[in-house]
Amino acid sequence: MQKLLSTTLIFLSLISLTGCGFALRGTDKAVQLAPKHQAVQISTDDTPDAFALKQPLIKHLQMRGIHATSATNNITIKNIRFRRYDLVGTLTEVRLVLMADVAYHINEQIYTYPLQVEHSYQYNEASVATTDGQGDTARTWLYDSLAERIAEQYRAIAQKHQNTP
Q1: Helices (H), the chain
Q2: Positive or negative, the Cα torsion across 157, 73, 32, 144?
Q3: Residue 42 contacts residue 75 (beta carbons within 8 Å)
Q4: Residues 90-107, mean pLDDT to the nearest whole number
Q5: Which of 31, 59, 82, 136 has its CA 20 to 30 A from that of 15?
Q6: Do the strands 39-44 and 67-68 form a parallel or antiparallel pair, or are they unpaired?
Q7: Are 117 and 100 in contact (CB under 8 A)?
């Protein structure tokens, strides 16, 4: 009886592991995009914020097997803006928000989404260095995080288009 119970438990645990959807990034061929979606053109405003976002976006697209080049598919990023919210005191709480309006042009269809990422941190104004040293690091993280979100959203939309007739 105990042998049957242990065999059943092992079998159930193996079945549950195969059905969880776990896969290492880049190992599942089912998530590969069709060749017509593997190239995308990136259009941005001519601003320092857009320039700072473009390189992380290219990196995240390449991680997903998508090349940023001249193509019929297009990612348009407009109205990139930062907001900073301070809760001032001896220990200042800072919340940085990076927002952008992103349009994906895929197969002659346009999908427009407002995207935002945020990061909070604290710094002590009573310390010897009263400058906000974490702000630049947080801005870099926000650019990277927004780029990752844009690349993943493009991949998801493109994958949906290749699965529809």
Answers
A1: 2-18, 48-63, 134-163
A2: negative
A3: yes
A4: 89
A5: 31
A6: parallel
A7: no
Task: Give mean pLDDT, residues 53-81.
Answer: 91
Cβ–Cβ under 8 Å, residues 130 and 2: no
pLDDT value of residue 128:
47
Going by pLDDT thresholds of 50, 70 and 90, the confidence category of residue 165 is low
d(CA 126, CA 89): 9
Is a pLDDT exceeding 90 seen at residue 57? yes
pLDDT above 90 as % of the chain: 36
Tokens of 151: 């690349």
Structure tokens at 116: 């935002």
Q: How far apart are the first and last CA of the chain?
A: 52
Give CA separation, 113 vs 107, 141, 161, in Å: 17, 21, 17
DSSP H or E stretch at residue 119: strand 109-124
pTM comes to 0.74
**Model confidence at 80: pLDDT above 50:** yes
